[in-house]
Amino acid sequence: MLCLDELSGDERLVADHCAQTSITIRDLSSGQTTTIRPPADVTGFSLVGSARFSPDLTRVAFALAKRDPDNEQGWVAVSDGLSGSSKLI
Predict the structure, then answer these.
(1) Which residues is 53 bridged to in the sheet?
(2) Residue 25 pLDDT greater than 70, yes or no
(3) How would you classify the pairing of strands 60-65 and 74-79?
(4) Counting beta carbons within 10 angstroms of the beta carbon of residue 46, is it exposed (0 to 12), middle (13 to 18) or buried (19 or more)?
């Protein structure tokens, strides 16, 4: 299973959804990782992914999915930074 979503343009940061319920940002130069949590007001999802960095590398947009082929639903969120919370958009 491939869970990497994006490598930043400067090749310093990687966004992944390997945890499936959050986005992890990995700094390839320092080895540090941070986690972006899904929006608190979104319930019923079971998978996150498709993360993309903003052009200035300060935020991340990502998708959330219910993961139910008979009753699928999706959301888009954007982080407040490279760690912590995010907002539904």
Answers:
(1) 60
(2) yes
(3) antiparallel
(4) exposed
Question: Among 45, 44, 25, 46, which residue's Cα sits nearest to residue 36?
Answer: 25
pLDDT digits (tens, 9 = 90+) for 28-51: 999 999 999 999 999 889 999 999
- DSSP-assigned letter for residue 48: E
Round to whole Å and give the CA distance between 6 and 83: 16
Instruction: Classify the phi-psi angles of 44: left when phi > 0, otherwise alpha if psi is within -120 to 50, otherwise beta.
Output: left
Angstrom distance (rounded) from CA 4 to CA 73: 22
Residue at token pair 């219910």: 66
pLDDT at 1: 63
Nearest to 81 by CA among 48, 45, 56: 56
Global pTM value = 0.92
Confidence of residue 63 (pLDDT cuts 50, 70, 90): very high
In this structure, what token pair is assigned to residue 8? 């930043």
